[in-house]
Design brief:
heterodimer, A: mainly alpha, two-stranded antiparallel sheet, B: ABC transporter involved in vitamin B12 uptake, BtuC, 3 domains, 5-stranded antiparallel beta sheet, two-stranded antiparallel ribbon
């Protein structure tokens, strides 16, 4: 019944898109594994890593879109949820290093030995267990989102005020995580990971599995989001976006709707962060920087807010551009990024997906006018 | 005559020529000779005698002795002061002060001192300098003796006090005397007087004196008085420290005010979220840099006026770019605040990168004119002129802005358009023009802030980023659309920040302030001084 509920939430385009994501997530790793390195069909490991990274970004973008595109909450702090999920994964990976660190301490990660810690801080307990760490990667961002949303939505902080509060939140977290005595690696963050669930992080096969996992979680995210958006609940959500006061006067508990979608979205961002960290091999406090969060918002704006396919496409376009430009013309990248912000908001308020729709509508209108 | 006779005659002539200061010089020479021969006991006696002689030339000799730079030449037993100069020592004659070439340690015998002698020397130098004709030297000597609190300097201080005319130096000397009395075995009544005197001074050094007395005194009366005095001084010090913190807080608050006040116009009255506001500040700072560069190369004598020249230019540059932004981007986005936020963020990236391409990404040096450097003491508060000027400047900017808003036609139009756009338009006000000018005004003020901030912050392309979140916090905290709210908000946040810093550290203090504001906005979503009535929606 649940599967039917989920399936019904999607229209035809979205079903195709989810299948496409899954196909990419299966095909690339499989091609990497079974094709010999010399073959034209062999997918190199760096590409797997890149696509895997993009897929986790796409999941983050989807999370942002869910609150912004469908509920009108422009969160400039989703990078914080992403980074918190990443830190949970990072803590697990640090514990897996065990005695293979530079200092060879079986219990304490290197940076703690370096900072003269005598024993593991209390919040590090349990992170040697993968299941616990993943649970935390979902729970910690959710709890933060719940606390923030609980206060903010109940006192009807909306619009740009909320945006600025979320930005201040991620800024404060960044400052906090930069401190060495947080016990979370300070400004160096966590890196030098060895293995995940007993498999080497560096191995091609692990990368293949991580890439697939990212694609799978993105597909799952799309399906669940579609179900939420397509349900009665989702309709109310969109109505909150368009006319919050009216919904309140009609008797809906607006803050409940907002809180639910905000927390769900934070959890999704946390999962994305947990997928991201083992693929790039490092997590540090700069992930909390407000610029990162706002860049995630740009992905959504480029792809098309208020659509589920849009953020995924946007994340891929922008990040592909970033990878290419920072390599080829590094000084142009910020110009391009800045211009993209301006162009998208001025000319493409519905994003690339919306543009597709506009062009289609125009050509249909032309066809209708043209005598045949 | 034999050559020997001639030499003897010449010597006697020379000697009689030198007879003018002969008595003293001979005295000093004899004492210096005593310094270099004999045991430590005789040396001590010689040092004390030198101090008692009041001979100014004795001070450098004693200094050299304490520093281990007093030597006796092996060849002719001449007493020399040797200052290290590379591998060699550059020598001067101790008594006459004439240069005596250079030599190595091998040709010389160092006059040895022990720790006890060092103490005696310091006291001797102190009492010698107490008699110096130079007022500053006398004052420093009195201060040094206060810190040393040595019973042996009592006699010298008494002698100096008897002849001192300058009341401030006299005060310093009697304080030093009081400290010395406390270290001596003077009768209780004298000690109590001394404690009262030291207590009045009420600074960190006097606290040290009183605490030491409280610890070491055997007389219960003295002990009690010293303890009471110490705690009173501690209270005074705490009050001064709080005052110093308030000053630092006001100083930080004025910086916040400068950064936020332009935003209070664009965000507060127009409702435009300008994330590129920090970059306007940055442009103002770079304008200052350019002005100073031009002045350095073509008109160095104008350097002190560079900031005054930069102010109008920064206003024009930032304001002009602000108007361009409003006409080019923001006017298409009215009514879409979230999109405005994103577009201006993108703009901030472009501006940063543009400045980085032109000026490079490293910090640029902006110098301080002479009237902004230096500091003075206000009671026990240390006030630097730079900070003082920034506080004054921010208040001037604030007052001017209030005047512009209340007393000029532009201000009237601006208020009209913010309050009721269609009606203002119907009354013939060209609202698009007013929008552009308002935005330009806000941006121009950010440029002015940049001139001031170039004095206290690194002028780099990232300058503005550090202020944007703080500025929004100030505006939101103070209440949107309320300039006085911005003033109060900025000063409050500045002072709170500075008071949290000693307890929580700078970073944690900042985090606490952010958390505080986040919670505060939950309670009062419209800020400290919320607008009421129709203008809210």
């Amino acid at each position: 019944m649940i599967t039917r509920f989920l399936w019904q939430g999607m229209d035809r385009n979205l079903r195709l898109f989810v299948l496409l994501v899954l196909a990419v997530g299966i095909a690339l790793p499989v091609l990497n594994q079974i094709m010999p390195p010399g073959s034209p069909f062999h997918v190199p490991a760096w590409l797997l890593q890149l696509i895997g990274k993009y897929l986790s970004f796409a999941l983050l973008a989807l999370a942002v879109d869910l609150v912004w595109g469908f509920c009108g909450i422009l969160s400039l702090g989703h990078g914080a949820f992403f980074a918190l999920g990443g830190y949970c994964m990072g803590m697990y990976l640090m514990r897996q290093i065990g005695s293979r660190g530079v200092y060879g301490n079986p219990l304490l990660p290197d940076f703690m030995v370096f900072l003269n810690y005598k024993e593991l801080p209390w919040f590090w307990y349990g992170f040697d267990n993968f299941g616990f760490a993943m649970l935390m990667a979902i729970l910690v961002p959710s709890l933060l989102a719940f606390a923030l949303g609980w206060f903010a939505f109940r006192s009807r902080v909306t619009g740009v005020y909320l945006s600025i509060i979320t930005q201040a939140m991620t800024f404060a977290l960044m400052l906090a995580f930069f401190r060495n005595d947080m016990g979370l690696g300070g400004n160096n963050g966590m890196t030098d990971f060895k293995e995940i669930l007993g498999f080497s992080v560096q191995a091609d096969s692990t990368r293949a599995v991580l890439c697939f996992a990212s694609a799978f979680m993105l597909a799952l995210g799309l399906v669940v989001s579609a179900a939420i958006v397509g349900s009665r609940f989702g309709k109310a959500l969109t109505a909150v976006r368009d006319a919050e006061s009216r919904m309140r006067f009609l008797g809906y508990r607006v803050e409940g709707y907002k809180l639910f979608v905000f927390v769900f979205s934070a959890a999704m961002a946390g999962i994305a962060g947990a997928l991201y960290v083992p693929q790039v091999g490092i997590i540090n406090p700069s992930e909390f920087s407000p610029a990162n969060s706002i860049e995630a918002v740009l992905w959504v704006a480029v792809g098309g807010r208020g659509t589920l396919i849009g953020p995924v496409i946007g994340a891929f376009i922008v990040n592909f551009g970033k990878t290419w430009l920072t390599g080829a013309l590094p000084e142009v990248w910020l110009f391009a990024l800045g211009a993209l912000f301006i162009v998208v908001t001025l000319l493409l308020p519905k994003g690339v997906v919306g543009l597709w729709g506009q062009l289609k509508a125009r050509s249909q209108a032309k066809k209708a006018r043209a005598p045949t | 005559m034999s050559p020997k006779r001639i030499l003897a005659v010449l010597l006697s002539v020379l000697a009689s020529a030198a007879l003018a200061g002969a008595a003293l010089a001979a005295d000093l020479a004899g004492l210096v000779a005593n310094l270099t021969t004999g045991g430590f006991g005789e040396r001590e006696a010689a040092i004390t005698a030198m101090a008692a002689s009041g001979e100014q030339r004795a001070a450098p000799i004693l200094d050299a002795l304490a520093a281990g730079q007093l030597y006796v030449r092996k060849s002719d037993n001449l007493v020399l002061i040797g200052k290290p100069d590379g591998n060699q020592l550059s020598l001067t004659e101790a008594i006459s002060g004439k240069a005596a070439g250079s030599g190595t340690e091998a040709d010389l015998d160092r006059v040895r001192v022990n720790n006890r002698l060092r103490g005696v020397i310091e006291a001797a130098v102190g009492s010698l300098t107490l008699m110096s004709p130079n007022a500053k030297v006398r004052r420093d000597a009195a201060e040094a003796l206060f810190k040393r609190r040595d019973a042996s300097s009592l006699a010298a201080l008494d002698a100096a006090l008897a002849v001192e005319k300058d009341p401030r130096i006299k005060r310093a000397m009697s304080e030093a005397r009081a400290a010395s009395v406390l270290a001596s075995d003077a009768p209780t009544a004298q000690k109590l007087d001394a404690i009262a005197l030291v207590r009045e001074r009420a600074d960190r050094d006097s606290l040290g004196v009183l605490e030491a007395t409280a610890n070491s005194a055997t007389d219960p009366e003295v002990k009690a008085a010293a303890t009471a005095g110490a705690s009173a001084v501690r209270q005074t010090l705490a009050a001064w420290e709080a005052a110093q913190n308030v000053w630092y807080g006001i100083s930080l608050g004025s910086v916040l005010l400068l950064a936020a006040i332009g935003l209070a116009i664009t965000f507060g009255t127009m409702g435009v979220i300008n994330m590129a506001h920090g970059e306007m500040v940055m442009l103002g700072a770079y304008t200052t840099f350019v002005v100073q560069e031009i002045i350095r190369t073509s008109a160095p004598h104008l350097f002190d006026a560079s900031l005054l020249i930069a102010l109008p230019l920064a206003f024009v540059v930032a304001g002009g770019i602000g108007i361009l932004i409003e006409r080019g981007i923001i006017r298409f986005l009215y009514g879409r605040p979230l999109d405005t936020l994103l577009a201006t963020w993108g703009l901030s990236l472009v501006l940063q990168q543009a400045v980085r391409s032109i000026f490079g990404s490293s910090n640029r040096e902006v110098g301080a004119p002479s009237w902004m450097s230096g500091a003075f003491q206000l009671g026990q508060i240390n006030v630097t002129y730079g900070r003082l000027w920034i506080v004054v400047f921010s208040l001037i900017v604030f007052a001017t802005l209030i005047l512009v808003l209340r007393k000029t036609p532009l201000g009237l139009y601006m208020r009209a358009v913010t309050q009721n756009r269609p009606m203002a338009s119907a009354m013939g006000i060209r609202t698009p023009r007013v929008d552009a000018l308002t935005f330009g005004l806000g941006s121009g003020i950010a440029g002015l802030a940049g001139v001031a901030l170039s004095q206290i912050d690194n002028v780099s392309p990232n300058l503005g980023q550090g202020y944007i979140i703080d500025s929004f916090m100030v505006v939101v905290f103070g209440g949107v659309g309320n300039l006085f709210g911005t003033l109060i908000g900025a000063l409050t946040l500045g002072v709170v920040n500075k008071f949290l810093e000693p307890y929580a550290g700078a970073v944690l203090g900042k985090i606490l302030v952010l958390v505080f504001i986040i919670l505060f906005i939950q309670r009062r979503p419209r800020g400290l001084f919320a607008l009421k009535g129709r203008s809210v929606e």
